User: What shape does this take?
Amino acid sequence: MRVPSKQEADEELIVYCDESGTPAGTAPKLAAHNANTKLHLAFSVFLFNDKGELLLQQRALAKKTWPGVWSNSCCGHLMPGETVEAAARRRLKYELGLTVGELHMILPDFRYRAEKDGVVENEVCPVMVGTCLTEPQPNPDEVNDVKWVDWERFVVEVADPANGYSPWAIEEVELLQKEPKFRELFRK
Assistant: This one.
């Protein structure tokens, strides 16, 4: 898989969708994120290592949305004609230099809307979980820092809004904790 240049990544298209998640047009990613961001297709990934620790990333300080905020392992947008899994694998490679094995779809219907500093995220955002057996090599254009954390400690930490995690990660963690498939696969 070819990794896009920063310019190519900045010029990516996102896919608008209707309420059911059916594609309904495209727009340049950066220009599309504003105070009136339309509903669009995205994804989130939570990666665990062989010790059961979760990989977190701190978003790059120059990001348009949620700069410097700690969040789940990786998240991003689908491009036209791309599956959720293909988009996740593309962004894992681009943001973290990672190629991972199987990704499990745990929350296929997750959707959220959040606003920060006048920029809105408004996404249909399926959540996948997988394992990572190598150390990430963060792309500084996308990721300021990474760390591995204990899941149970993270669940407590992310529940306190004062800790400043991304709003989607907060919601996703709460839902993952309730999901039997997640507990079966990753929290034995």
